[in-house]
Amino acid sequence: MPITTRAAVVESGGAPFTLADVQLDEPGPHEAVVRMVATGLCHTDLGVASGGLPFPLPGVLGHEGAGVVEAVGSAVTGVEPGDHVVLSFTSCGECGNCNGGHPAYCATWLPLNLIGGRRADGSSTISRDGEALGGHFFGQSSFAERALVDERSLVKVDPDVPLESIAPLGCGVQTGVGAVWNVLKPVTGSTIVVLGAGAVGLSAVMAAALTPATTIIAVDRVSERLSLARELGATHTINAGEADLVETLAAITGGQGADGVVETTGNVTVLRQGVDALGARGTLVVVGAPPFGSEVALDVNGLLGGKRIVGLTLGDAETQSFIPALVDLVKAGRLPLDRLISTYPFADIDQAVRDMGAGKAIKPVLTF
């Protein structure tokens, strides 16, 4: 039987989130019903809600869910009712990148997660009054009291860790951490620069602090976030509104430049500055996503010193091993996500959106 649940529906691009009763389809063989306990709010949710991506609306978003499994499909083997789970992206599990341990680069990633709004077979997971809604967002659509979740989005986690403290692991945190651990892989004495001190950037700072990097530089325009970055492991901070980024980085590094840069702002001018700030054989990881079609001009001769520019999706993480490891670090106090999180009742989702847009909340988490 279909399940009726309360969800935050976006009716059209630019419209607010509206709470409404919706119906979840019966779980398929590789799906589970999850009672949501907490869900992080991410800039990707806001970008889709604004109409910036071709996701079918009206629809239900949400892709940083955490909850308790209530029912599983006939072919689900990794979890069972009662298990605590963090929800992340889904993937086909069959293409070369999935089989090679890189499911974030699944051949069908875009339609399965970001723009399709349906299962791979084209069927709908959510409806309202008999009309299909856009759903299956990152295989979960977790802005709802219950979610119908793709099996490959489910990650079983330690039940002793409060779910509201680890919901952001599904997207933003694993993206920032993965940029450092899976791409930059700092060696002893490395210099790491993080451009932007939002949730992704501060996650990168915390990740860098758990590596042999000895110089960790956070860059932002908000002094409060720079102070927090210091508390989370940054050895230096730069207020980009008060100092020239490239010149200041050159002074900090003795003219050697950065070994690694994580660009989280989505600003192409900042990206160019980050490339210019790289030292020989340095790597810049592009995490922030500007509008489709955005281009950046680069000094080609400046790249010949072995500089690399690498695009990144979701930390290039294999979620079944990566997320439980992050949960262990949260539990041990070594990844203090609580410093980033502000909690809001689910009914206050629009207030959370406003606070995030105004910079009052780094990582809003909705609780049920």
Describe what you observe in this structure.
With 368 residues, this protein is of the alpha/beta class. Strands 3, 5, 6, 9, 10, 17 and 18 form a 7-stranded mixed beta sheet that branches. The two termini are 23 Å apart. 26% of the residues lie in helices and 26% in strands. The chain has helices spanning 43-49, 96-99, 109-115, 172-184, 199-208, 223-232, 245-252, 268-277, 300-303, 319-331, 349-357; strands spanning 3-10, 17-24, 31-40, 59-60, 65-72, 84-87, 126-128, 131-132, 146-150, 154-156, 191-195, 215-220, 236-239, 258-263, 278-286, 308-311, 341-345, 363-367. Strand 12 (215-220), helix 6 (223-232) and strand 13 (236-239) form a beta-alpha-beta unit. It contains 11 helices and 18 strands.
Main attributes of the structure:
alpha/beta; 6-stranded parallel sheet; 368 residues; 26% helix
Percent helix range: 25-40%
Indicate the radius of gyration in whole angstroms: 20 Å
Low-confidence stretches: none
H/E topology pattern: EEEHEEEHHEEEEHEHEHEHEHEHEHEHE
Secondary structure: number of strands: 18
- Average residue pLDDT: 96
Total count of helical runs of at least 4 residues: 11
Structural class: alpha/beta
* Ends distance: 23 Å
Percent range for β-strand residues: 25-35%
The biggest beta sheet, please? 7 strands, mixed
Give the overall form.
Answer: globular
How are the SSEs placed, and which strands pair?
Blueprint: E1 3-10, E2 17-24, E3 31-40, H1 43-49, E4 59-60, E5 65-72, E6 84-87, H2 96-99, H3 109-115, E7 126-128, E8 131-132, E9 146-150, E10 154-156, H4 172-184, E11 191-195, H5 199-208, E12 215-220, H6 223-232, E13 236-239, H7 245-252, E14 258-263, H8 268-277, E15 278-286, H9 300-303, E16 308-311, H10 319-331, E17 341-345, H11 349-357, E18 363-367
Helix pairs in contact: 4-5, 7-8
